[in-house]
Amino acid sequence: MAEKDSTAQQTALCDPDVRLMLEVRDGSASAFEELVLRYQSRIIAVLEHLVGNRDQAEDLAQEVFLRVYRARHTYEPNAKFATWLFRIVNNVAMNALRSRARRREQTVPFRPGDSQHFEALDDAIQVPSGQIPARRLDKLEMREVVRLAMESLNERQRMAVLLCKFEGMSYADIAAAMKLSPKAVKSLLSRARTKLREILEPYLQSGQMPPLVGSPPAVVSESGEQRAETPGEDNSPPESDDR
Q1: Comparing 46 with 128, which gets the higher pLDDT?
Q2: Pairwise CA distance, residues 133 & 142, whole Å
Q3: Which domains does the chain have, with CATH numbers?
Q4: 125 and 146 in contact (C-beta within 8 Å)?
Q5: CA 110 to CA 146: how far, in whole Å?
Q6: Could you write out the DSSP letters of every residue in 129-170?
Q7: 158-164: Cβ within 8 A, 24+ apart
Q8: DSSP per position, the chain
Q9: Does residue 13 register a pLDDT over 90?
Q10: In Å, how far are 62, 143, 172, 179, 198 from 83, measured between CA atoms?
Q11: CA atoms within 13 A on the CB side of 146
Q12: Which one of 15, 70, 130, 243 is most buried, counting C-beta atoms within 10 A?
């Protein structure tokens, strides 16, 4: 076990951000400022996608860095710095979402950020053939469709997608950040991709917009006509627990 921990530390020490955090642990204010510069915009983007509000995302990002600073004396380089940092981001985001749920606040919709983050979802929304249809897609309309699709994911699925597609993290790193097993992360991402494709394929193929989150989905009758699903009507198989 000690040998495994030593190997993990040696791997982590190859990470320049880990070395910066060790300087922070030793009292370097400039090293902390450098970490903030490197990660602030990325953290705000992820948090905005999760909580749906730029101002709240900026406030939560400040809380993340405050937690990082407070933890500096006990910091141990047992993982990549980004993995350790996004574990804090995940905790802060989930606390904020639970607090919102307790107050029964209206959910603020997901809003895609910059184009780089928007394009990171491309491989998650391809049709089964793996090709984006030739139909010309309006970028603004497409972003709205992605927003609606991402809103359909639960918070854990959305976080897993954000870390995978925006941060390029491995299953193992996402698992460490979200305190899940790699198998659970794989399941989360698989479900998320399936759900995104189910929602986005009709738009990519024929221009059919997905329904607003919270509105009853359309049900196709035997005659082929669409009707709104009756509240309480269950037309899908039960979903097992991701945990």
Answers
A1: 46
A2: 13
A3: 1-108 (1.10.1740.10), 109-206 (1.10.10.10)
A4: yes
A5: 9
A6: TS---SS---HHHHHHHHHHHHHTS-HHHHHHHIIIIIS---
A7: 158/49, 158/50, 158/110, 158/192, 159/46, 159/50, 159/90, 159/93, 160/185, 160/188, 160/189, 160/192, 161/121, 161/124, 161/189, 161/192, 161/196, 162/46, 162/49, 162/50, 163/46, 163/86, 164/189
A8: -HHHHHHHHHHHHTSHHHHHHHHHHTT-HHHHHHHHHHHHHHHHHHHHHHHS-HHHHHHHHHHHHHHHHHTGGG---SS-HHHHHHHHHHHHHHHHHHHHHHTTPPPPPP---SHHHHHTTGGGS--TTS---SS---HHHHHHHHHHHHHTS-HHHHHHHIIIIIS---HHHHHHHHT--HHHHHHHHHHHHHHHHHHHHHHHHH-PPPPPTTSPPEEE-TTS-EEEPPTT---SPPPPP--
A9: no
A10: 18, 28, 9, 11, 30
A11: 25
A12: 15
CB contact at 8 A, 83 and 173: yes
Largest CA distance in the chain: 71
218 DSSP β-pair partners? 228
Task: Summarize pLDDT for 141-173 with one digit per residue, the tens.
Answer: 777 777 777 888 888 999 999 899 888 899 999
CB contact burial 116-138 (16+ within 10 A = b; e otherwise): ebbebbeebbbeeeeeeeeeeee
Mean pLDDT of 228-238: 40
Q: What is the pTM of this model?
A: 0.67
Residue with tokens 């997608």: 161
